[in-house]
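The passage that follows is intended for readers who have already worked through the single-chain material. We present the inputs for a multi-component assembly, then the predicted structure in tokenized form, and finally a short commentary. You are encouraged to pause after the input and sketch how you expect the pieces to fit together before reading on.
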Amino acid sequence: MDYGRSELADRLAADYVTGTLRGPARRRFERLLPAHPVLRVAVEQWQARLMPLTLGLEPEKPPAAVWRRIESRIGGAAAAKPAAAERTPWWGQLALWRGLSGVATVAVVGLSLLLASPGPAQPPIVVVLSATGGAEGAVVPASFVASISGDGRAMVTRPLVNVSVEANRALELWALPSSGAPPRSLGLISEKGTTVLKKGEALKGAGGLAVSLEPPGGSPTGAPTGPVLYVGKLNT
Amino acid sequence: MPPPTQDWSERSKDLSQLLGRAGLGDRAAFATLYEKTSSHLFAVVLRISRDRAQAEDILQEVYVNVWRAAGGFDAAQAQPLTWLTSIARNRAIDSLRRAQTQPQLQTAIANDDEETDVYDAVADETPGPLDLLSRAADARALSHCMQGLTAQQRQSVALAFYDGLSHAEVAEKMRQPLGTVKSWVRRALMSLKSCLERAAAGGA
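Having made your guess, compare it with the prediction:
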């Protein structure tokens, strides 16, 4: 099925948000969401339309025990040690790297696609970026491949699958420093074809790459503002 | 909880900051967020799950999830209350899916068969889905658009949305063929969508 078709996307999203999309269809839909911006936008629109309906419900105070259980789960209050209290930022989270096994096979494909021209002295590095947020244990398809020249000064990205982005949104590529420092922007990339980026030292110390969904001109804050759609590990 | 007269987006604005700070690991902000939103989310979950103990478990999962995902919240794309309510509803519906293989939910549905008034989803003094729809009337455009639906369309959407009923369950409750109910829900949603879009375009 072509989930990029907006009419179908809208219908599925309406059913999903209303709650009438059930069983395997609901799970399949949830697995598709991370890699299909059209679906995701349709879901967000339906959520915005329908969730205010819940204002009609009489608020019901949950028992205090619920909060205590939440607090202990998130390592809060009494249990917290200063060091443990620091929460890992999203770019440092292990879960983000989940499902990136099987990357090697795709990397080889990516290499043959990208490196038709004679290589530089040092071998290039290929990073495969996969969709984030898939269900646990699900196979996450590779979505983007980034090839970095041996000297780290230039990079080429291209999508491996059909990636669709709403007209008023753009994809921005980020270097994720291994040190856990905030991501550095590498610029906007095309969801359709090849993007060549010349980034000098920007990749120094990077442990991974991520692609986030941003407003048309890219993130206005210099840090990712939208959801992170794809992430890939840099093996150096 | 803020008074119900307060607008959805107005409430969301207050929560935006709390969620942002929670995303940076601020526990105090997260506690305040819980304070301000848990009664609403508990009501949403309780309505779908019907089982108090299970609803409490779901609520716990929801907030642990929110704590972990707060950093990824996209303020440009969604209002916090919309985002939070969606997470809660999804969890509740997922738990329903699991519970459906167990007998207790079957009894809950069977009990409802005795009702003579199909417009009343619950036998006790809990407001029926249609009451809820009219109370949500504070969301002005939405309520205006709800009035444009036929009675059957309104009821089928209300049963599915508030009580988390599947098409088949809505059909059973309304004693109507599945196909009929499906098309009621579909048409109701499509007409809501176009009505809300018209309202937004007209600044109504």
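Commentary: Chain A has two domains: 1-87, 90-233. Chain A touches chain B through 50 residues (CB under 8 Å). How closely did your sketch match?
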